[in-house]
Amino acid sequence: MIRAGFICLMFLGALLVSPSPGAAEPSTPLLPVPSLSAAPEGKLPTGALQDLLDKAVAQGIPGAVMGVATPEGSWFTASGVADEDTQEPMSPLHAMRVANATETFAAALIWSLIEEGRMGLDDKVNRWLPSGLVLKGGVITIGMLLNHTSGLYDHTESPEFAKKMLSNPKHRWSAQEVLEITRSHPLKFNPGTGFAYSSTDDYILGLIAQAATGQSVEKMVRNRFFCTAGHGPDRAVAVRQPASIEHAWIRLAG
To answer: Alpha-carbon distance 220 to 57, whole Å?
Structure first.
């Protein structure tokens, strides 16, 4: 069964979290679901955005969701199907995994801890994590991880990571496994002398946040960004993925 991924455009920090079809509604909604036609007339190029989404689906994506939220209003739409087997139409009300947007929340979490005085941009990685766990951990700073100037090899680019992902997609990667891959590859450049996006940077930021607070990233993201101001239960972030939730996909030859 191939299920659909999503495209989400978020402006001014607005975020939509919606229930899966058939899921029981919590007594207190996590966040209010805006009207799908709430955007003021003429304020957003809704036609062009819908065309963009439809073209993405036409190029081979089974289905996708797009959301735009501004102070003037919000607009959400979908295209394609949520499930290729059943041909269930994709809907803006389908729940989505946070997936790669986790990296954005990791950075926001670190900034919130910096604002609280828990850590600083110039803190070396080795201040928070055991020496030797991260290559050049005595040189690389939190700031370098945030702006991707650490020079660390991205573990997701490694052939060994790809091989394991394809042979066992449900494998739960430990920090030691992830960082062992990174340590087995040379730095792309000396820390602070270049730029290269690396998912490993964000992964290490999560480890630092946990070391500084004694709390899991899951719990901190839930409490700081999803369940604030009296909003509902911990439905937004979950380690175990419900079977009904939509997720990204990859089509392999053969």
So the answer is: 35
7: amino acid identity, one letter: I
0.85 surpassed by pTM: no
The pLDDT of 31-58, averaged and rounded, is: 70
The mean per-residue pLDDT over the stretch 67-87 comes to 84
In which order are the strands placed within the sheet that holds 88-89? 63-70, 73-83, 88-89
